[in-house]
Amino acid sequence: MDKRTFLKSLGLSIGALAIADNSVSAHSEIAGSVQSLLKARVLKPGNTIGIITPAGALSEEESITMTKEVLAHFGFRVKEGKYIRARYGNLAGTDQERLHDLHSMFADKEVHGILCVRGGNGASRLLPQIDYELIRRNPKVLLGYSDITALILAFYAKVGLVSFHGVVGSSTWSDYVARLFKEQFIENKLAVYENPKKSDSQIIQYKDRIQTITPGIAEGTIIGGNLTLVSGLCGTPYLPSFQDAILFLEEIDEKSDRLDRMFCQLRNAGILSQIKGFIFGKCTNCGPSGGYGSLTLEQMLNDYIKPLGIPAFSGAMIGHISDQFLMPVGVRARMNASTGVIEYLEKSLL
């Protein structure tokens, strides 16, 4: 994710709002501990799911069509956001249009859950203008990842809402993802995630290997998402406390120098010193920087995470991949850095 674009959009949005409305001062303090935990209700076949595009614009109608087909597979009805097809540059409409759809879905009593059709860029522009009391009064399932990390973290920081880092509507919904979705949102099972084991035809694991950074077991509130968004929200009221948390991260399309800068930001902001456990998912299409050479991701994890002495591993199926874990954010979990198992200890829905 392009962090320069993210930071520019966040800064311009906050600055513009401060000039237009002095009520922004209510959001001026950096978030500390989150509000009391807020959970949505389980979904049932026949419920209505709202679909929105709070970040990047859609390039084709097929994304909406496939999202509807996915939800129909589970027996859900679908309600489209009014501006789901809008475009404003690379964004799915102006800030006010995207904000309208977000607010409308939370306010609509007929809508039981919200699925983002895609991520992209621009969700952070909405954060200073969101009606968080509306969210508090109408807790609903919110599912998405990548740029949607901004909403997931802000909702948790401001009102304690448990949201979900996972597939978007335009993702590839494999049988594996469909099973996780049903178990999480319809059956409300306690999730236990572990990368698939090797096939019988292989003598060792080749695909989806984990790498243990520091062995051990940790328990804590699990929080995380896209690295660009987590690091970019440092110092804002939209990032929750990471005290005694398990932090998970993923990334896409970033060069090594930018990855190193973002890890450095998390360390310098004091976030890494607070956590009890660390999980890194996939760094899809990440590569070396130009110039005189680049650090590898393994070197960065050894530099920033290993000295913490906490249970930590990388390679979890979290991020921009087809078969990805659906990660509730804000509930307690246990991780085993030696085996790569993530076990949720608390149900995410009512």
UniProtKB/TrEMBL annotation:
One Gene Ontology molecular-function label: carboxypeptidase activity
Keyword annotations from UniProtKB, A to Z: Carboxypeptidase, Hydrolase, Protease, Serine protease
Q: Where is the LD-carboxypeptidase C-terminal domain?
A: 219-335
> Is the Transmembrane helix keyword given for this protein?
no
Where in this chain does the record put each LD-carboxypeptidase N-terminal domain? 49-166
Q: Where is the active site?
A: 146, 250, 320
Alphabetical list of SUPFAM superfamilies matching this protein: Class I glutamine amidotransferase-like, LD-carboxypeptidase A C-terminal domain-like
**Family indicated by similarity:** Belongs to the peptidase S66 family.
Q: What is this protein called?
A: Muramoyltetrapeptide carboxypeptidase
**What organism does the record attribute this protein to?**
Sphingobacterium alimentarium
